[in-house]
Records
---
Amino acid sequence: MNKRIVYIERQLLNHSGVRRILDKIKPSAVEWIEHYKEVLNQRGGNWRLQKQYQSLILAHRKDAFYYEASPLTHSIEFKHFYYNTLAINCLYDCEYCYLQGMFNTPHLVLFLNNNDFIKAADTLSQRLQKPFYMALSYDTDLPAVEHLYPYCDEWIRYAETNPLITIEIRTKSSITSFFANKNPVNNVVLSWSVNPEDIARRFEPLTPSPAVRIKAASQAHEMGWPVMLCIDPIVYTRDFNAVYSTFISNLRKYFDPIRLYGISIGTMRMNTDYLTNIRNQRPDSQLLWYPFERKNGHAFYPKEVRQELVETVTNALKKEGFNRIFVYD
Ligand code: SF4
């Protein structure tokens, strides 16, 4: 991340979190702005180049503290499924990431009024009076920014007080500090995205290797936290059958299928508008220039490829005893 400039919304002038973050990263300049979109939505820049100089934007969210997810967008067995956006953009740089096409710039936005997000979830909970699932911030990697703002810590503490909510914290990081000094909480699902080493090396730059992610996940698993593994996206490569089967049999060494919360799987897919934007930035990406099928605003592998990938991975998982599988297709 570019430590030279931090953009801060003027209304955060007296926010204690701002001082803590500035003390940590010691930027050489601070620029005060009216609204985070002034920077995030700048047009005409080169996204790939800007990623090398990714700036930090500190902001205050005024509304939209959560969204209801369509039943088509998730596979978890919860009737009421929501997600929120505590931060925008990511410190990592996965080649398949939709964020590259969703926002004009890669600058990292952190909303510092996390308490308003938690209050909104609490109001929702009182209205629903039923169990519900809240995925925390898929538009970033939350644990990877925990050193800047303790989102995970604050949400875990909230979840401990409200048995109706189940929160999911998904990451590709190897960071353990946000859970290692706490007792496991039944309604907090810690979820690690993993892929075979070769896939990660090729398509997931800046992320810790899957081996260290698995180590962090297995630590949480051993401690008794509900742990989910996400093999998503499954990437179609010439030797994917052998690559994914070997990878999955290795997972069995670290996780007890009975105690694991589940394994979520899904194949490469993307909103078509985002795909068009990203292809403009990545004319040389074999992964993104695959001749995807398009339907209802989404691009994905042809049906027979999707079926083969899902079947291969599902069969390999079942062979190792992993039966709680959530399939996104
Ligand atoms: S870790 Fe997730 S959010 Fe971050 S770049 Fe990779 S796919 Fe995108």
---
Amino acid sequence: MSSPPSGAPSVRAAVVARVKRVRKVFVRPVQRAAREAARSTAAGLGQVFLPPWRCPGCGGWKKVRHLAPCAGVVDVSALRRSTSATGCPRCGLLYVTPFPPASDLRKLYSRGGGWATGHPQDTSDIAGTHLIEALDRIVGFRAPAPGSCVLDFGCGHGRWLNTFAEFGWTTFGIDPALKTAFTRHSELTAVGDSPRFQFVVASHVLEHVPNPGSILEQLGRATLPGGWIYVAVPHLDALPAHRDWKYVLSAGTHLAAYSLHCLTYLLAQSGFDAPVEIVVPKDRKGQFRLRIVARRGSPRPVAPEPLTSALVALRKAGVGTATAR
Ligand SMILES: [Zn+2]
């Protein structure tokens, strides 16, 4: 018998190795890219053709589209969509259409994501003693009853919670992106359904989220009867004065814009009554911000407003083509 040629197995092995290498270098990346493209296209198409059907504030179905162009584009798959303001004729909310993909928002506000990177630790005081004094005149939060609890939804580095802690409050915070506050304050991962807080804070949060109505309802359920909520957002009514439309609404991070009437409507829907606007004359950035407190109670429903406040603000500021009616 003759033995097989000694070179045959090594030739076969070399061919197999070459094929594996070709597949690893050329074929698999293409397969991976195709799978990823299919996934993102599916998500993207959903985003393109499924913008918020219902108002993110009140859940209403009616909408008025293209009230004004917004800064920034929404990047979905290979499609870069320009954005514009849509208005809700029931609660008066303006919101960006289309919304950024939910996956982009999750990534932006995740731990170590873009928001955290852009907001390194800030140890300065909150807006200042003038704001504290103005708030205390209405709420009297400097002398809490023993065991009083406060929740700051979107607490950032904990500046509000630090202030509350100094006055003797038991402090809780929620923040998906920043964690420095939780060396001093208790972290929660959800608001919870039972009322336990005498005070809740949503300071410059509601403009960032795609579901502000749902968040306000959660905060309403978590607030004890007679407790308070403090809300701060960019000031839509004051747009003709400050003229910073991009700050009020843009495709980047400020997805929803609020007039005082809109916030009053949404707060009433969540069980908060008779909101009071806090004006801080000595705050140089005060005109940009709508700051209000409201009490947990049994509010009467607020009458719908057919976007009057928003349209007046846009027209007086010369933004878009909106006309007041
Ligand atoms: Zn609405």
---
Amino acid sequence: MQGGGEKESLLPPCKQQTMLKATYATQIESLLARYASPRSVVLPLLYMAQDHYGHLTEEAINEVAAILNLPATDVFEVVGFYTLFYDRPVGRWMVQVCDDVPCCYCGAEALLDALKQQLGISEEQTSSDGMFTLQRVKCLAACHRPPVVQANLSYFYDVTAERADAFIRFLREHADTPQGKSVSGFYAEDYEPDANGTFRQIPRKLVAYQPPAASNGTPAAEPSQPAPSEPSAASPPETA
Ligand code: FES
């Protein structure tokens, strides 16, 4: 996607898209108001564009650059640098199988083989129905429950080769959920196998911080409660 030299005015004005600004005006304004520099909004805006268009087309990248009043080259470089930006069409689900050492010891290669067979594709390919793109990735930092797979950045634990069929079925059945519609992972959750041969969402637990007792025997002062997190302005509305 990247080339040498400055990449400016890649499209004539009549071909430049304005869909993002028209669709997400409030969210974009909110993001811009949050940061001192428009440059700081590049990543959330690219994720927004990626979810809206399905992947980052040249037009979409130019559109982001235009909204932020940045040189297009700068935005193309960001897209080229980060592996979670997709500058080519990808499936509804981006399935990323960890093949690092702990996952490999627990069957990651067998899982990859099973998924390839299930989907009829090789790595870095997309299934003919446009539903799945398969990738092999390095450690996903969840080595305690291998083999680990990410699908649109949702974590799936203990996905053995024997569970490949249930895993694919689960993703197909959930293709129209927010998780399935956001390849950028705005609504990502955690899942584990359940007793019914499918997967269940793991509830998130917020554990309160317990301050250690002070050395004189009196309890340490309670830390002030963090402010509740506000809804992310970067979260795009669900796309069709
Ligand atoms: S090795 Fe697979 S999550 Fe760390």
---
Amino acid sequence: MDLATVAGALPPYHPRRLPRSLQSILTGPTQLNLCRIGGVPVENNYWQVNLTGMHGEPMPESTRDFTAFARTLRTQTIYDAIEGAIPFGPIHRFGFPCSVRRRFEALDSFPDCLLPLGDVICRFNPAFGQGMSVAAQEAGALRRLIEARTVDADPLKGLAQSFFAAIQGFLAAPWAAAENDFIYEKTRGQRPRDFYQRSKFSFALQRVAAEDATVHQIMSEVTHLVKPSSTLRDPQIASRVTALMAASA
Ligand SMILES: Cc1cc2nc3c(=O)[nH]c(=O)nc-3n(C[C@H](O)[C@H](O)[C@H](O)COP(=O)(O)OP(=O)(O)OC[C@H]3O[C@@H](n4cnc5c(N)ncnc54)[C@H](O)[C@@H]3O)c2cc1C
């Protein structure tokens, strides 16, 4: 995966441009264009726009090409937002080889005074912006475990195994999001057995969310780890999604 990031000041308000209250914008990939482009407000009223390309997709080298590229996307929202923007630096590029999940929890034993945390356990596609949140959740779990062990004679004994068990719930949803990269034929690795069914659910959910702002908000909150993924199994949402899946079968 290739990431190209540029930050700058958006041009003054224009009717076609974004409402100032907007939190973020995202244009997802299509079958013809694997790139994903998203913008978020950052400090000093600047916006940061990130373009991610998969499997060697050509990436723009200059801010002019970047803007021109935005024009080729399925929708013009981001182009309308950034056309005429003033970048305050060059495009920063980052190459990300692959998402990785290390199954330390499956080992029979683990050294007592060693503890992996963060990306070394699970490294996600940064396009989804989840790695720091997961690392923070893991740090919280570690603190709770250490606090509970302060009275133990040997508090570090077996800490790693307890830690690995405690963090699996934090990894499930972001790892499932990373597994969406199996949608690309060139993605290597072990495709989950239920991937086809999951993808169908995910496509139908996105179609429901495109027409219902409440569902869209819940979907975004799950993606950004604010709500658990079980929220999407709420009967009111799940029934609409499965009805759409059945209709398009
Ligand atoms: C381009 C990009 C954009 C991202 N955007 C987001 C985002 O928007 N939101 C989000 O939540 N996450 C994001 N992430 C993911 C996030 O940055 C990581 O998940 C998070 O930083 C992991 O924290 P960590 O402490 O495990 O690793 P790191 O933050 O990588 O820290 C590891 C540290 O160890 C140091 N180190 C490495 N080897 C050695 C050594 N041998 N000796 C001493 N020190 C060493 C490194 O220099 C580094 O400082 C992004 C990642 C990338 C690459």
